[in-house]
Amino acid sequence: MSADTICANCGEEENLRGSRDGDTITVTCHSCGLVWDRDLTPKCGTCGSVDVRKAFQSILEKSRGTQLSIQSMRLVYLCPRCDADRLADYIKSNTPLPPDELPVTPRD
Ligand SMILES: [Zn+2]
Ligand SMILES: [Zn+2]
To answer: How close is the Cα of 94 to the center of ligand 1, in Å?
Structure first.
């Protein structure tokens, strides 16, 4: 792991583990559980803009027990144009984004 790799959440530099998936190296911080893709130029998948914002997204660990609990987070990027609503919610709530795989359950 080279010196430029640092956890965006807790600042950990040593306790990191990288795993290669094709061209992408996925790094896991073993201090706080943050997961991110290394050597990835942040870019919007929809419009290609590189003017994107960092955000943390929860990852739910589904294998342990019956209770769903937030175990770790992933570093993702939101486009101010294409993901405007999610980005606004993220900034407003100041909490990690919900996981993608969860169905949206409206609450009242
Ligand atoms: Zn960390
Ligand atoms: Zn975009």
So the answer is: 18
